[in-house]
Design a protein that fits this description.
single chain; 178 residues; alpha+beta; 5-stranded antiparallel β-sheet; 4-stranded antiparallel β-sheet; 38% helix
């Protein structure tokens, strides 16, 4: 008797078919929920990346604009960057380039140009003329590569700078450096 009862109690208990079905169902539901949450995270990250220009680049560009434009004595808008760097070009009411004139403490004048494109590379580029007023072929530095469009305009003496990135996010800066 002892031997028969100990054999029966010593055996491992197996799962029934119903218990196995419930365990598989719970696993499937949890797996489905994890896949849904992962998809939601991917969509959220994609949306976050679309607004990177407005979130990260735009505030830095604003600081640079404030610093650069506050030091300028005057500005003129030109249709293109090449036109703005040309010594005998005529200004326009709107365009993709801005020529700035700085009066140095020594009495000298310095010219700079903010332009949308440089040799086919989109972004906002800064050109600084030498002492003779000659601009380099390549930018002195790049302010940001994020903007795909930069448009300068002057309505009623008010400078407006509108920038757009590849995702269509747009920001407009305004001011009057005079």
């Amino acid at each position: 008797m002892n031997g028969a009862s100990s054999g029966r109690n010593g055996r491992a208990r197996a799962m029934t078919l119903i218990e196995l079905a419930v365990a598989i169902s719970i696993s499937l539901v949890l797996s489905f929920a994890i896949v849904l949450l992962l998809g939601q995270q991917v969509r959220f990250y994609t949306q976050l990346q679309k607004f990177r220009f407005l979130r990260e680049e735009a505030p830095q560009i604003n600081s640079l604009f404030a610093t650069i434009l506050s030091g300028a004595d005057s500005y003129r808008i030109y249709a293109t960057g090449n036109t703005a760097r040309s010594p005998d070009a005529l200004p326009a009411r709107s365009g993709t380039a801005l020529r700035l004139r700085f009066q140095l403490s020594s009495g000298e004048e310095r010219l700079s140009v903010l332009a949308q494109e440089s040799e086919g590379v989109s972004g906002l580029h800064y050109y600084r003329a030498d002492e003779l007023g000659i601009f380099p072929e390549t930018p002195s530095w790049t302010i940001s590569r994020a903007p795909t469009e930069t448009f300068f305009s002057n309505e009623n003496g008010f400078l407006e700078i509108r920038m757009r990135d590849q995702h269509g996010s747009e920001i407009t800066y305004g001011g009057n450096p005079d």
